[in-house]
Structure formats: C-alpha cells, structure tokens
User: What shape does this take?
Amino acid sequence: MRIPSLLTLSTLLAPILALLAAKVAPGGGDPAIDPAPPTEAVASLLYRQEQERIFLGANDAKANAQLAAARAVTEFQTTWAGKPRAVKVARGSRTWKKGEAHPVTGATLPGDFTARYDEVVVTEEGREVARAAPRPEGMPFNAVSQIAPSVEGVWIVSEGKGGEGRGLALWRWSGENPAFVHYAGKRWLPSDAVTGLSPVTFTEPRRFLTANGRKFETVTLTHEDLLVGTEAGAARLTLRQGTLAGKDPVFEERVKKRHWRARRIFGRDSAVVASSGLGNPEDYGTNRMGDSDNDGLWTAMYCAAQCYRYTALSRLVESLQKSRPEWEKGAPADLAAFDEYARARAAERDDALASARVSFNGVAALNEVTGVPGYPARSWWPANDRGGRGHTGPFDHVTNKKWKEVPGEGILWKGDTSSDETDGHYYIFGVYYNHVGRGAQSTADDRTRPVKYARAMTDHLMKNDWYLVDEEGLVTHWGIFSPRTVNEHKFHPEAEKWNGAGRRPYIDVWLEKHPWWVETGLKSASTLGYLRTTAHLARAEGDVAGADRYEAEYQRLVRDHGYARNTVRQKVVSPRSEVNFSDTELHYVAMHALMMYADPAAPEYRWLVAGMQRLFDISRSDKTPLWNFIYAAANRLPRGEGAKFDLPGALETLRAVPLDCRGWKVHNEGRWDLPLAASPDRHNDPQARRAVDPRERSMMKYNGNPYETGGGGDGRGEDDGSFWLLSYWMGRAHGYVD
Assistant: This one.
C-alpha cells in the first residue's frame, strides 16, 4: 500500500483551478460563492496548514516543464491591501570583528568574520515597509538565489548546492509578528539543495456553520500549491487554509490505523495506543506496531483526549438541538443541511465515547494482568506474536523488566512499572470519571471502575510505605514516593533482607548513583496528586469515610513531611544534566490533580499555587498547549484572560504541529535566525535560545526538548500524535479553542 497523499485532484490541477477559481461553485447544490470576506467569527478560525508532501522524482516531465517556465527572480511586484508593493533582494555582506560574538553560535570570534548577508526588502512608493529580518539575527540562511510571491508573504530559496543547500523559507511579513518558517529535510523536500520553485494559488469554496449556530456561511478559501525543484528531484507541497477542527480527523485516523493495539481481555474490548515503525518510511503499509515502557501513560493521554472530545462534542450537539427550532422556520434545504451537520457531530461524539471506553479498558487491563491489586503493568502484548519490540528477552537484573504470561488470556505483561505509568493512570482515573462517568450516556461501569483502580493503587502504596512493590515483593525502579527516600534519601528498609535472599533489587543500586534531591518536588506532587484524586473519586461515589481516610494520609504527608512545600521545588533548572523535559510533563499531570481537586481554603494551598506558578514561569517559553491549558484550567482562568497564560503561543503550536508524524532528521544548527543557547542540553547536544517551530524540529511528544536543534531519524518511526489530540480537545472542552 502506497502512502495516500492528502493533496486532492484540485491541488494537482492547481494551474487550471487558478484560472477558473472565480467561477467555481460549491458542490452539493450550494448557492454561488458570496464574494464578500468571511465574518470575523469564521475568519478567526482559519489558518494555513502544510499538507503531507509528494515526491515527484527527478524525471517528472510536467514538473520539470513547470519549473523551467518559472523564471528565477530576485524581485517582483505584488499588491497588498490594494496597494502596489515592490519586493527585492538587497545584496550585501556584514563583517564581525575579532572578539565579537559569532552571530549564530555566540562564540567569541578569534578573527574578523565576513559573510554575505542578503535581505529581502518590501517597499511601497519607494518607502520601506518591511524587511526580511524580523529577528535581529536575520534570515535562516545568509544567501538567496530566488524569491517568489506567497499568499502570506515571500518564498525565499537558499543559495547553495549539495551539502551547502539550506532548503527554502516562507517569510510571513504581514501581521504584527513577522516570522520565518523554514522548510528543509525529508519531511518536506527530497534534498535541501533547491534549484527553483513555482508557486500557484487556487481557491476552494467551503461552508461553515457560524459560531452562534444560526446559519451556514460559504467562505472562499485561498490555498497555495508549491512545486519545488531540488537536486534529488521535485516535490509538491500545498498550504491549505482550514481550521484546527479539520486537522483532528487526520490524527484520529492515524491512531486507529497504525497505533491501536486492540484485543479482548477479561471479556472486554481493550486497546493500548503505542509506538509504531515503518519498514519503508514511504509506505505506510509496512507499518509494524511495538511496545514501549510507557504504554500506560500514552494510552491514558489518548483516552483523556477522547474524554475531552466527548465533553466538547456533547455540548455542541446539545447546542445544535436547542437551535433546531429556529432552522425549522427557514428554507427546507437549509434545515436538511443543518440536520446532516448535527448528525455528523453526534456520530463524532459517539465515536469519542466508544474510543474512550476501549482505551480505558486497555488501561484497566494493565491494572489486572499482574495479579497484584494496585500494581499495574507497563504494557501488555499478544503471547502468540513474537515480532514486537523488546518482549521476548530474558530477565534483566539491571532494570527488572520482564514479561510474564497471563493464564488463559493469551497475553504477556511487562513489569518494573515506573512513576511515569502511575502518574498516567491516576490522571486518566480522574479525567475519565469527570467526563465520561458524569456524562449523559454514562454507565455504572464508567463511574465505579476508575474509583476501584485508584483506590487499589493508593491502598497498595500506603500499605508499602509509598513504594510500588511488584509481584515478587521488590520495589520497582522508579516506583518510589516514600518520605524515607524522597526527603531523607535512604534505602528501603527491606533492601538488606532482599539481598540476603539472593535477589538484588534495583533500588539499592539506584540510590547509590542517583541524586535523589532532584526528585523531591516531582515525587511529592505526584504522591499528593494520587491522594487528592482518590479522595475526590471516593467522595463523588458517596464513600465519605474512605475519602476521609485518604485525606488524613494527605494531611500527614503535608504536615509531617512537607510534601506541599516540596512542590515549589519542581522543575529542576540546574545542573543541566538533570533538566528533563519528560519530567515537565509529569509535573503538569501531577499538578492538574492537585489544583483541580484542591481546597483553596486549606493552609497548604499557597504552596501548591507557588509550585504551579514557578513551574509555569519556567516552562512558559516552551509554547506547549497542554502546559498552558492545564495551568489556565487549574487557575480557573477564562479565555478572555489569555494574557495571564500564553494562549497565542498555545494556538500557534497547535497550528504548527505537522500532519506528518514520522521522525525525519532535521538540521537547524547552522541557521542564522536560530542562535544557540550558551550551554547544551542534558545529552550535551546543542539547543536554541527559543523554542523551535514544530514544523522545523524533529517529531516529538510534549515530553521532548522544544529547544532541540537536531534530532530525528530516517522517518521509519512514527508518533501516534495523541499529544496533539489531548491538548486540542482539552482546549475545546475548557473553551480555550474554538
């Protein structure tokens, strides 16, 4: 099966459509296009999303003819807001003197340094109105061979052959925040040595239901089809105008096709969302699923996305039902179109509910397969399938990871469960109960099961002095939440007894090597979050005595061990070897429970607020949507107070995450507009001073380093994209995303 392109036939016929655009009418008997611009309510949702590319090869005759006809230009005339403007390349060079800082690396120059430093200048009646250097550092590359008009600004081609080529860039020079988007690497191009480009614009009529649900509005969207010639052949890209809601189905389809490991376990249809690999990165038919150490966490996040999706769509369907009487007063054709729209949204709501239930069953199975109440597995895998990653190896005495078979179920389960997993489990217990368990279509199972698993895990941890203990009685590698270790950095009291029995648990080795002070803030927040979640669920189900028991343990840890005060020590910023963005994700998951279920009148609440604020202040520049939405929801901030968090940055990232989630190699180290930070990251790799645009960095979940300048691979690994779904639907459910 070859990879289907997201480009439609209309895209491939772009030159013809460009001529006919003004005469095209919407399909399905819609009225002619209204030439008036869309209303502000609809226009505010629109942006341009890069579609997955097509590589045409070096011998595509039509592509080569189109490129040959496109004259390489370094200046052209355009019209913006009704006024003629001239765009041209300003040739020049700059010299930095000995002792000055290098413009990219920041290193002190041992001698004079001169480089060609072209800039693209826009003038109106001889007066400069824009210059392609929105940041002081300049453009992504320092020499330009061609420019071309774009719907949003100017396309800029780098000068250079072979290894010297730097791809191309789009300079969005309109608006308040001009910026570059740099297109390079195999995510976009066969080669970064670009030989020419030929952009064509075309239009597409679309109907949108207005924000108030009172009418359909036909909007003419403007797209851009870009043919790029490179030394390795041509590529066709398209920037298609649309909405975030239109992006969602691409991510949903990917999960179900290539990342949905489904099986019937303990009588329930269950699935985990897991990693996937491609034998051939250009052929999705070569996909092969695998497992990871954190299948529970990633499945919990996908399940949470479906819970939020269910809530958001339930509200939308309810709103549509209330507005239907108004549509009955109008034209029958409009009512029929409205009913079709409402049925489609109801079907999406039902799909969200079904997906939430099956993925929750996948998490539930992890809690049952071990046979130890409260001790979940990392992952499960079909016992008759020996082709997956990592599940057939012998017992590993270093990490304590091993696979065991569940009698009668035909599955294996992986042990040595970590705090990443327990954080994910508690997170979904609360989210699932609050959104599905309290939904209009909920069942008794939807309410009782998350409570059951949360209580079992909390009881297990409390019984074992806040250590996660496996089926052999050994403490797992990362399942450590006890004050004895978190605050005092001491061994588990049973360590010597285990050693005497000939079993060397990992914890005593780990404690000798790991600086446990860096875990104090995170482990304290996680532990209090577990207790808050369990007490919240027990109380919601009417078990006041049980809730009080968990509340008493919460207060003991706060009063006697300073766990609330410890939360202010979250997010280590020094030394750099301990700056871990994966922990940032766990911090936010823990603080979500603490802040959403906390009592603002409690004395320790001030510590939680301080810990949450410090965490957000440090990570705000990441522009991560999930961090912003958790912070805003925890502080009960309405959308109108988006300045108190970074709503524009969150929306920018949601728009910029590529539809293509394959792990392509990227090289940003030499970009002039992306100077390096003074120190490398924890792996001693270079990182940038600002967060790298998701279109330009390697594919990563939100637990990756957004300042990373390199990374990625040959495209064989594909992320499921649940990180995008979770942040998008959480934003929708809380009203931060339209």
User: Anything to note?
Assistant: Residues 1-37, 388-400, 499-506 have pLDDT under 50 and may be disordered. The first helix runs from residue 9 to 12. The CA atoms of residues 535 and 547 lie 4 Å apart. The chain has 20 helices and 26 strands.
